[in-house]
Amino acid sequence: MRTGFVAIIGRPNVGKSTLLNRLVGQKISITSPKAQTTRHVLRGVLTDVEHQFIFVDTPGYQTEHTGALNRTMNRNVMQALAEVDLVFLVIEAGRFGEADRRVIRLLPENRPVILVINKIDRLERKDALLPFIARVSGEHAFVEVVPVSAARGQGLDELIRTAGGYLPEAPLLFPEDEVTDRSERFFAAEFLREKLFRHLGDELPYGIAVEIERFEEDGALRRIHAAVVVDRPGQKAIVIGRGGETLKRIASEAREDMERLFGGKVFLEVWVKVRSGWADDERALRSLGYE
Ligand code: GDP
Ligand code: MG
Known about the structure:
- The chain has 9 helices and 9 strands.
- By secondary structure, it is an alpha/beta fold.
- The strands form 2 sheets. Strands 2-3-1-4-5-6 form a 6-stranded mixed β-sheet, sandwiched between helices.
- Strand 5, helix 4 and strand 6 form a beta-alpha-beta unit.
- The model has no long low-confidence stretch (mean pLDDT about 90).
């Protein structure tokens, strides 16, 4: 068997989490068109007859926002990079800029890096791909370049085949049927945060966190009490929405995702609380699971 860790890194929004979900065949990493959707390092496991890949999804490396939360996320990206056998550097087809270069500068020198060009479905002209590959290949000593569409599942077999050759020979680290090392409690908070990111306007999600206050299993039923933590009182009204409609829709979509992953019914109760300055308060961050 070949078994090893593969870090998935890149600037925000290139599709790292979408790729992880496709590779492991289940939605475990939350995605949205907004930067900072992924705040935690998350492992997803794919086991086939010859390999076990432990993919490590990371927050997009932040260079624009500062503050304690972003410092924590960047530190976690660097730690993830230090521990892996192989790196997928993800970029978007047809787009390559300074933000991508800043991520390249973080790449460890003694690890193979595969350049994954995602979102090839978005290319208007297919013949633009080869010149693009030629241009970006010179940016680093990549061992391979693989174009994919994570959203459509194109190129992923090729990616896995190619990556497999770079894993060391080693026994399995996870049971064959395990997809992740995170708890249901973790995913409950994450799925709720995804819906907040998707349903709220552009600025609000960055001031929001989710705390699971109770998680109880009652036979096949899970009873979950969650708090949405906002930074300012005015944000509370926005999250709740007129007549509670916004929060109702957010909670109901999050519940559906939880039921799919957990394979059972979920009773979900959500309330909103204000905790000013949580994103810059190291203690608040720890209690919200950002370590
Ligand atoms: P991350 O920040 O790098 O983890 O990016 P996400 O996985 O959250 O994806 C960011 C956005 O890009 C989401 O809206 C995804 O639906 C979208 N996306 C991801 N992969 C693809 C792809 O292959 N094609 C297209 N068209 N969109 C994609
Ligand atoms: Mg992500």
